[in-house]
Protein 1
Amino acid sequence: MVKQLSWKVGGQQGEGIESTGEIFSIALNRLGYYLYGYRHFSSRIKGGHTNNKIRVSTSQTRSVADDLDVLVAFDQETIDVNYKELHDGGIILADAKFNPVKPEDTNAILLSVPFTQMATDLGTSLMKNMVAVGSTCAVLNLDVEVFKEVVEEIFARKGQAVVDKNMEAIKAGYDTTVEQLGKTEGLMQLDEADGKKRMFMIGNDAIALGALAAGSRFMAAYPITPASEIMEYLIKKLPELGGTVIQTEDEIAAATMAIGANYAGVRAFTASAGPGLSLKMESIGLAGITETPLVIVDTQRGGPSTGLPTKQEQSDLMAMIYGTHGEIPKIVLAPSTVQEAFYDTAEAFNLAEEYQCPVIVLSDLQLSLGKQTVEPLNFNEVEIRRGKLQGDLPEIDSKEYFKRYEVTEDGVSPRVIPGMKYGIHHVTGVEHDQSGKPSESAANRIQQMDKRFRKIENVKFNTPVYKNAPHEEADLLLVGFISTRGAIEEAITRLEADGLKVNHAHIRLIHPFPTDELMPLVASAKKVVVVENNATGQLANIIKMNVGHANKIIKYNKYDGNPFLPHEIHTKCKELF
Amino acid sequence: MATFKDFRNNVKPNWCPGCGDFSVQAAIQRASANVGLEPEELAVVSGIGCSGRISGYINSYGFHGIHGRSLPIAQGVKMANKDLTVIASGGDGDGFAIGMGHTIHAIRRNINVTYIVMDNQIYGLTKGQTSPRSSTGFKTKSTPEGSIEQAISPMEMALTAGATFVAQSFSTDLKDLTALIEQGIQHDGFSLINVFSPCVTYNKINTYDWFKANLTKLKDIEGYDSSNREQAMQTLMKHEGLVTGLIYQDTERKSYQEMLHGYSETPLAKADLNLDQAYFDKLVEEFM
């Protein structure tokens, strides 16, 4: 019996690899296991190697597994590319169709199963994925009946006959593999799960749900990997709430349309990835100087330019903090789990209205697309706070403008929306006076700049740094942001087992930087390793700039497009002692 | 009820004396009063350039954005609050150069926004460079040997993009221009009104006199039918685009917001932000 195992299915893109993983995962999720799936895919529709690596565990996991227990292969390339991940005694379940060959330098067991042939015999080769699922059941000693409910849901609209055929395919795969193994108890068996129902979702789903919970009713967006799922989810749901998503002609239109809608009083937002954010930069500056609330999600991927569109990277950090010409107040959040992606996105809408500035929710491909089991989201934790948005206004002379940019102590001015009587004022991206009229006066410039920056002197955010810091004096502090959290946590467990005292800090409020929160942890650690998916150590540099202690900060960068694995961080840190 | 004077504010425009944009400003103010608007019910969104300043010269809600992006901002405003009257405005550089992509897509999207272009065939605020509306051979600071590019024909372009309201006017024709803006505001869909608005400082070719000599009023063309798209196109081609009046209107096609599935009857800006717990639970259940 094992507490966790890792299963991977691979083949050519467009062959249904994703849906095989999906069916496998949903069924196991419903049994109460914690799933963590990460897809390897290319920027093309058909062809090219793709795989879906899924970790099944009896406790929460947020990292891609170091190795592999079972590899389901629909072509030889899948074996050749992935077999080195298999540990001794790992299993390759391969389609007999391509006459699979086991590489010489592995102790894995190869079972050649006629996935395609059996599916064809049952009516259509499309069901080869189902045969493979059944075959997996035999190896893991899972009852095929656990797939019945999922198969029924997926194929219900195609009729009972299709449902029955697919179940037959699963059973056929199971029976054949049992026969090949010559036994029924399987080769490896998972501990029983707790049977609790939990959500199974990607980070982008949580971001979209967070926006809905926060009262966002309008999204303007342009399709891009890995952000599109957010708009695709919301276009299904927003019409149920009277709202909508507009797919705009370009990224600039998405940002400016969201600005227009926010100005007019709706919690509107947009989501994109690096290339889109580059195009939105001027608009972000407009939101900054006009003090228009604006939530933008950046699902980072490999850059620069088109870069690695389907790969993991965290290299937009500096651009998100400083991007746009000129200087504006801005808030940058970086959720590190799917749950946090939900709460932080919802909170982003509050911060945008309270501080009247752009708020960027920084995600990355691994968080946005990694499909995983998620503990319940507490809807009651989502508050709606609209800052200084005004209700009815006192009468003013009809020719006087409302002081939309009134200089106040906290820098935040009263905000009105079009349609309100006595609220008329001007909004402009030109430097302006308190009523929004263009002004080039030096005194006014300083007054308005100072007012805008005063707003973010004391940004209140619930947990600016996620900390797991049991040691007053630590040998090592590991720091990361967004999706590196899972791999860091697992590495820490191993480092502690090695006898090291290790603290963990994950930065959730990137800007304004929570210096006071992080300072004591950095100060009390002998060494600080900053783990990040970029080449230049952007987070490490931000920490050096804000916190200091440059001499003990060590950069650990990975920029090959793949997520960190726990053993990599473990090995790297061990080398330091 | 508000009069055109209620749409005036106490800001003095920084346009050159004689600029065509003064008349456009007056026409917007008059048309707004004539259709029965109160100042707070109007939002004027403008781009960058001399004409882009117009949002600051009308007593209404005004949003002066970034270069070329008045249309997506205006559409966002309208999507958020469909009870507002939304006018987008700017120059020919704003709408037909840097913002051309938005212009085409605003036309085909057909959100109920009135777009008024102040077309002076030159870049004024940057002190006299060529515009996509400058005629071939036109000498400017950026085309010292004369422009060798073809000028855009915005009215023909709008027709091919599926416009439901296309009109053109001349800034001195205050009465006609005011009437067209009223029609544009009342049209349920996107309305494009291109206004020849001479630049007295940098354009010595397309002057007031030049327009007077070269423009044809559509109402003077016998049998002109503004519901006939084919005739509209032929007339524009025949007169090289130099016509004024209502060129084309499609009253059949519904606006974007009318056609939108599930779109709220009450303006989104007034919607309750709170989700119902049962609805949220249903969303959660779908992921299990």
Protein 2
Amino acid sequence: MSDDVVAVETAEADIPDPVVGVLAARLGEALGDGILAWEDSFGTLVIRVKPDSWAPAAEFAKGELECDYLSFISGIDWQPVTRPDGQEGSDLSAPVQPTEMTFGVTGSAGRFQVFGHVQSTSRHWGVTIKSDVDETDPRIASWVAIYPGADWHERECWEMYGIVFDGHPSLRNLYLPGGFEGHPLRKDFPLLAREVKPWPGLVDVEPMPGVVDAEGGE
Amino acid sequence: MTTTQPPSQLPGFEVEPGSLNPLADARLAVELDTGDMILNMGPQHPATHGTLRLVVRLDGERVIAADPVIGYMHRGYEKLTEFRTYPQITTLINRIDWLSSFANEVPFIHAAEQLMGIEAPQRAQHIRTLLTELSRIATIYLFLGEMGLQVGALTPAFWGFRDREHVLNLIEGATGGRFHPNFNRIGGVKDDLPWGWIVECRAAMKRILDGCDDFEDVLVGNEIFQARTRGVGIIPAELGAAYGVSGANLRASGVDWDLRRDGKPYLSYNELDFKVWTHQDGDSFARYWVRLQETRESVRMVLQLLDGLASGPVMAKVPRIIKVPAGEVWVETENPLGQMGYYVVSKGAIGPFRVKIRSASFSNVSILPWLLRGLYVPDVVTVLGSLYFILGDIDR
């Protein structure tokens, strides 16, 4: 059974999109060594900044890069899902049950990251800004003063990941009831339905008996 | 009253922008004995299209602070996606914006396809575009009727439900599901269009165009409707964008921005001839007017697609077990309610590591605390109706 994935064409992906390159260069000029890494991810600039540069990056994007539109702000927890019983298939997101953290595009210094996407309604470009957040004391500057729409996004991120946004006017629960304990989108927060009964859908991917997949590359 | 400046700077609205905690404000009001009243709209108010609760602080008939309380329908899709495989997730995301489920599937499938380096065949892209536009018509057509209901006109609401059914029948005929088609596959669509569907589709589009004319006659040209909606709930363009208001709501504020034309090319929109309508006023009337024109534009697109439907297969070659290579991709599309996007983080397995779902209504509604301040209570209903949100799209 060769369930190899179709390889992505990398010949063109290696050359950054010209717009992405220009945006990265301008952000680099403005923030200097506040930028840790940047990458062209499928035509979108993903830039990772130091926590100190999280708010200045948004300010620059809004003021100079004309990114007047806030798409979203959210967080990410890079810790792999670990199940106490080590049951196979408990983490569908990794080919083998991972033991340590691996990071995505532009890397990360630790477990938590915040990322936000802003874009321009007039120039039609966008930037995804990422920043590392300390694991023991997760806090980062708020974007509310720059983008008022950051209000709800940061409240959501705060309750889902426990990341505190300094300068946010009222960090209170958005979705969850007031006395809720824990941060549901953290990877160590269990999904109880899966604890009780492992995901049954995995059997679906077994080939049907007697069926030859003519074009599936099996 | 000009609304280009924040209401907090207008006389009589000395409310701290941060002090939106209704309980704290209520205590303040008791101490000062100013006689403010807290009105609790929802979570079962008819104007909220679901379980949105709106805590409104009133001074007489006038709103001085509004605080939307959401989360009654939060289903935790971002968590659930981490426990499912890619093909299973389309079933979930059908339920985000349940009026235009097909349009929800498209960006997610597109994200997986981009990561895998697969491109759906042209006929599949055409069918996807067709069904996306049909679900746009179904969604917005209901709005065109219901908006009449918000201002007290009952008849258009029935028209909206009646004629939308023709479109839903088309979607059901092609996909098997009226509301939740789950028709997209990574690499194409599940089936080809059924026999006779194209003829049916043309007939239904004729009905929709006629219906749009009816709405124009009965509502847009109606003096009472104009009196209730013109100048009510004006969203300034820059503030709307900074709040993340998108779609027709932003275009009604004069922002000429439509991801079908301006975003990264997706589906078959670059093959189609269509106009992006904007309105300069930014009020409830402008939002209605822009959506009305967009429905007609969608019908035009559907007819163009029916004329030039490509032949060929509807599925690309994909492995039986969908494994998505490691990477991160952000895919955004112009959905009926606004910008819908998925930020997919994959680690090279059968399920995603993290999916950030950016839904349109969430950001569209987040402007309400600003927008409702200074309005009268009946206008709150008009503004809620004209923003047009789906609760599943807010809570996810």
